[in-house]
Amino acid sequence: QVQLVESGGRLVQAGGSLRLSCAASGRTFGSYVMGWFRQAPGKEREFVAAISRSGSYTYYADSVKGRFTISRDNAKNTVYLQMNGLKPEDTAVYYCAAVDALWYSGSYYYRETSYRYWGQGTQVTVSS
Questions:
Q1: 3-state DSSP call for residue 103?
Q2: Side-by-side strand order, sheet with 68-73
Q3: pLDDT tens-place string over residues 32-43
């Protein structure tokens, strides 16, 4: 089992940048595919990005492609989400997710049901 703790969310102006972090417990972080999701007020949770166990493969939602970058440091048991060019519509609670699995395809990890473990979320607010 792994526990996930997100951090780094805050209020930022449109056009600004933020880096979210997700720290995982346990000694097998390198065996987990990691993902980021977000949920805006009144909306369903949606996929943002995913990264394979080694970091060799990544997958992004179209809405963030070219602006957000997912990365991981397996030595630090941490996955990151670098967010640039933030827009008011990026305002949401951002969640980290994990699953102990191989990298099948990006589209597979687009789905919430593909993940087993979830963090509590960190709030990102982008003002216009």
A1: coil
A2: 4-7, 18-24, 78-83, 68-73
A3: 999 999 999 999
